Amino acid sequence: MERPGIVVLLLVGLLIGTGVGSAYARARRGWADYQTVKKTVPGARSAAWLLIKVATTKIGVIALLLIGAVAYAAAGSDGEPAPPDPTPSPSATPSVRAGR
Q1: Where is region (Disordered) located (predicted)?
Q2: For the chain, what percent of residues have pLDDT higher than 90?
């Protein structure tokens, strides 16, 4: 009679142990991954700031060039009218040589 009770207790213990064991293994993997990422964060942070500095420098240079081009275009006109387009002159008709 004791055998069915022991079997039930063993099965319940097996189910609980499997759940707890898989949760423990998942927690250990998560902790190991966390430690790995934690060690790489300072390097990634400095690399990200370097990329941000490079991008802002490029954007700043392009903005200065655009502002300079607009200022040059605005200050470039002296108020002189553009010279008139040359009118096309009538072209001479080609002469035909006799005897050829």
Answers
A1: 76-100
A2: 51
